[in-house]
């Protein structure tokens, strides 16, 4: 059955994106031209900015001039310019007004403020539009029902209130702006207002309450696949209460909800839907939403383990791996079965393994690179520290796969373990035993016996996995040397009993990371994880200091 309201909204939203879809298809054939046009526009529009004058934009004639005059920058290099905008100065990084700052953090870094302008919003829509049109073309049934776009809880920005420019968005859909924002809200199965719920148990219950009411749910878009798995894991326990609330049009947490959330729920009895759910099985979610067509989520790196588990729960729905996107920029988008660079959204450069700088049209199949991006928001040659690999091409535009964060390295005693190496070692080790955990993370660990690395896993795995992984890590000569000297003890296992990814996210968000910025990883250089995960070591009961 088609939901008329969402069908109309989806159709209108689709229509607004047709021009960007056609332009992107054309740009895929000529990425060099598209990129040159973007760079020229950036330079011409911002010659008289403080940044443009400091770096001689008026005398830049081509890319080689740009590369010589503007250095590759990280956030620390841009921060003094951003602080000037915070104090109310205009025409600093870009000519356009900075409408607000979007707070973000990498998985290990401190809080950052990313300037958001009308131009950056247009660049985001230039990526979202082609993705949506391609999605509707691949899976036309999606247009006939509502979608669940996971909600990012509101960040508390302690210490940042002195900024003249507003910090953060009122809603995730504000990234779209204007008519697109209104149309996106019209098809949402779960209202944006749920971001005001701070209690995780209440948030989970109300989210499931909203989702269960939507028999015609067609699309689920989340970040990490474990987010959905954790929601569904709680269904059997609260199933009777949910069905009762759906039948009578109430919510057991109504009195505890912020008024804005209660108003957004628009409670009404749905006895027919409750009767349908009585015949469903909370352990078989595919029967709950029989018309679900697609799940969009992270699918690369360590997220692949959880994505494979999610696919088993929804064997008849298409599982689409998200493109590489961050608060700062869209790097790739899902399109025609691949992940091409968003060549119409930002200007890109890439650092190869030899340290040479390449542009989009110069990338080579099978090679790995780190991403540098320039945007209409004022990020100039910004080093994202995302490591990618070229997996193919659409027309002349490369398709990229996210590998790891390039700066994610642990070096306690000179072992120099990187995320890319650790991820490969873990995947190869797990492949030899033919088992896949729902969550896995390697991190440094210390107790009275000394220092080592601990593999935190959720899911039944053999204890000799630790020995096998330790052997694989010894392929790194620096790690092997530290092991030989006794500076590092052998790897050990920590068996997580429940909510591995959820507790990982809790720790990261407590440090200031947004949900969408917490990229899939199998490695953390931060210790202390045994204090955040439920479970214990498999071979010893000693805890960390």
Overview of this protein structure:
By secondary structure, the chain is of the alpha/beta class. Among the domains are: 121-155 and 171-321, no CATH class; 409-537, GMP Synthetase, Chain A, domain 3 (2-Layer Sandwich), CATH 3.30.300. 38% of the residues lie in helices and 17% in strands. It has a 5-stranded antiparallel sheet with strand order 8-7-9-10-11. Strands 3-4-5-6 form a 4-stranded parallel sheet, with helices on one face. Strand 1 (100-104) and strand 2 form a beta hairpin. Helix 9 packs across helix 14 and helix 15 (419-433) crosses helix 16 (465-473).
In short:
This protein is of the alpha/beta class and 545 residues long. The chain has 18 helices and 17 strands.
Task: Present the secondary structure layout.
Blueprint: H1 4-29, H2 31-45, H3 50-54, H4 63-69, H5 75-86, E1 100-104, E2 112-116, H6 118-138, E3 147-149, H7 178-186, H8 200-212, E4 219-221, H9 225-233, H10 235-248, H11 259-265, H12 271-278, H13 285-288, E5 294-297, H14 303-313, E6 318-321, E7 347-352, E8 357-359, E9 368-374, E10 382-394, E11 397-405, E12 409-410, E13 417-418, H15 419-433, E14 439-447, E15 450-458, H16 465-473, H17 477-485, E16 492-498, H18 500-510, E17 534-537
Parallel strand pairs: 3-4, 4-5, 5-6, 15-16
Antiparallel strand pairs: 1-2, 7-8, 7-9, 9-10, 10-11, 12-13, 14-15, 16-17
Helix pairs in contact: 1-6, 1-7, 8-10, 9-14, 10-12, 15-16
């Amino acid at each position: 059955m088609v939901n008329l309201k969402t069908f109309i909204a989806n159709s209108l939203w689709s229509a607004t994106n047709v021009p960007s879809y056609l332009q992107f298809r054309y740009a895929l054939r000529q990425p060099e031209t598209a990129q040159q046009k973007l760079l020229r526009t950036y330079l011409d529009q911002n010659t008289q900015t403080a940044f443009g004058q400091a770096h001689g934009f008026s005398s830049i004639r081509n890319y080689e001039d740009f590369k010589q005059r503007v250095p590759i920058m990280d956030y620390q290099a841009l921060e003094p310019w951003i602080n000037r905008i915070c104090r109310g100065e205009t025409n600093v990084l870009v000519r356009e007004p900075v409408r607000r700052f979007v707070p973000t953090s990498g998985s290990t870094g401190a809080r950052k403020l990313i300037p958001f302008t009308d131009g950056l919003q247009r660049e985001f829509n230039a990526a979202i539009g082609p993705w949506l049109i391609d999605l509707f073309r691949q899976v036309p049934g999606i247009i006939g029902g509502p979608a669940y776009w996971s909600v990012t809880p509101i960040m508390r920005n302690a210490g940042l209130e002195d900024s003249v420019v507003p910090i953060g968005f009122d809603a995730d859909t504000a990234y779209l702006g204007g008519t697109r924002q209104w149309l996106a809200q019209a098809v949402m199965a779960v209202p944006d207002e749920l971001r005001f719920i701070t209690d995780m148990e209440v948030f989970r219950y109300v989210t499931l309450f909203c989702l269960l009411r939507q028999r015609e749910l067609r699309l689920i878009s989340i970040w990490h696949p474990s987010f959905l798995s954790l929601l569904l894991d709680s269904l059997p326990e609260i199933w009777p209460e949910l069905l009762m609330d759906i039948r009578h049009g109430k919510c057991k947490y109504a009195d505890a909800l912020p008024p804005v959330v209660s108003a957004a729920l628009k409670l009404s009895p749905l006895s027919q839907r409750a009767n349908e759910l009585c015949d469903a099985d909370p352990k078989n979610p595919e029967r709950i939403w029989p018309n679900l067509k697609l799940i969009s989520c992270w699918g690369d790196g360590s997220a692949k383990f959880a994505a494979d588990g999610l696919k088993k729960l929804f064997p008849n729905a298409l599982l689409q791996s998200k493109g590489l996107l961050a608060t700062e920029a869209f790097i790739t988008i899902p399109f025609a079965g691949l992940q091409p660079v968003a060549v119409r959204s930002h200007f890109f450069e890439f650092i190869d393994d030899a340290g040479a700088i390449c542009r989009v049209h110069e990338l080579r199949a099978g090679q790995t690179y780190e991403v540098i991006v320039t945007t209409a928001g004022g990020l100039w040659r910004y080093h994202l520290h995302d490591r990618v690999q070229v997996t193919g091409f659409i027309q002349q535009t490369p398709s990229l796969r996210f590998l790891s964060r390039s700066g994610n390295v642990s070096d306690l005693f000179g072992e120099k373990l990187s995320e890319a190496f650790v991820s490969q070692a873990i995947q190869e080790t797990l492949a030899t035993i033919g088992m896949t955990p729902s969550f896995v993370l390697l991190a440094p660990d210390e107790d009275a016996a000394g220092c080592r690395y601990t593999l935190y896993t959720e899911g039944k795995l053999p204890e000799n996995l630790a020995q096998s992984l330790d052997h694989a890590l010894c392929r790194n000569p620096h790690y092997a040397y530290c092991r030989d000297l006794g500076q590092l003890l052998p790897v050990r296992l920590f068996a997580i009993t429940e909510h591995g990814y959820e507790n990982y996210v809790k720790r990261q968000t407590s440090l200031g990371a947004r949900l969408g910025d917490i990229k899939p990883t199998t490695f953390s250089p931060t210790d202390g994880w045994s204090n955040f995960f439920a479970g214990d070591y498999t071979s010893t009961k000693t805890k960390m200091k």
